[in-house]
Amino acid sequence: MPAPTTTRDVRRVPVRVGGTALSRATVLLAIGALLAACLASLMVGANPLSPAQVWAGLLGQEQEAMDVVRGGRLPRTVLGLLIGSALGAAGAVMQSITRNPLADPQLLGVNGGAAAAVVTAISVFGITQPGGYIWFALIGAACAAVLVYLLGTGRRSASNPVRLLLAGAAVQAALQSYVVATMLADPTAYYSFRYWDIGALTGRTLEDIGPVVWFLAAGLLGMMLLARPLNALSLGEEAGRALGANIPGTRTASAVVIVLLCGSATAAVGPIAFVGLAVPHLARLTVGVDHRTMLPASALLGALLLITADVVGRVIAWPQEIGVGIITGIVGAPVLVWLVRARKVGRL
Q1: How far apart are CA 244 and CA 282, in angstroms?
Q2: Cβ distance 88 to 297 under 8 Å?
């Protein structure tokens, strides 16, 4: 008679991984590309700087360069790293826990819930700083996530990708209508909210970033702790339960991580679409489906995508800028179409 399975067996879950020399080389290439994107983010703008001027600005050796780099571009780059990592990781956890390749904070209404809560904070409570949005955004994101899950789950069946997508679209539309109605009724809220709503990394200081860093760090740490349980759950509920995985606990912890990452990211820069949708698929192609490598790869690629999109937004409209949320929307729409048309869209 075989020995009973214990929770330690979760560590030996057989998953298909991409641990080849090619995938490692691809990860190293992505890290190099991220470093190059960060340098470009510090150099590119209405006042272009050379690498030497960027270095002098960081060290405080040249006043004009220091004002440009430290005053605007460094906080912008740091924020891009944090928000991109958060959205990429949140999308990966969301797709894994729902086994839905279309899961995305924007498509499933999580960002909409945060946006609705933020516009309420502006209109009703007069809050205008990102640090003050954080609790409202977290509560709004949590409420929207619960509502979409309840609407998209049948009484006797697990969540269905199409049903969840439709529920998310309905909730997102309702929340967007509320946001628009609130802004039309309150001109002050409109002027404060419109810039935040497009999703942009500009106009932030390192002091503005501080209040959300702890929530983002907690979410990213929780993401790494979920890697092994998600590996077990990826085999199916019955197999995961046989391997000793705590399925309700894993789902609850995943929901907390998603809300922390999406709510704090949305509070900091506004709703940014499609990063959480596209990045996890690219990570799986790069390193495989083992969550111990796929989740960090999603965070890495999310940061790379967001910073690159921000730089592109500065270049194509120079000397003006296009918000990073608009650029990611343009890039992500074709990805959504491809995923919807894919034969295996119904499962991961």
Answers
A1: 30
A2: no
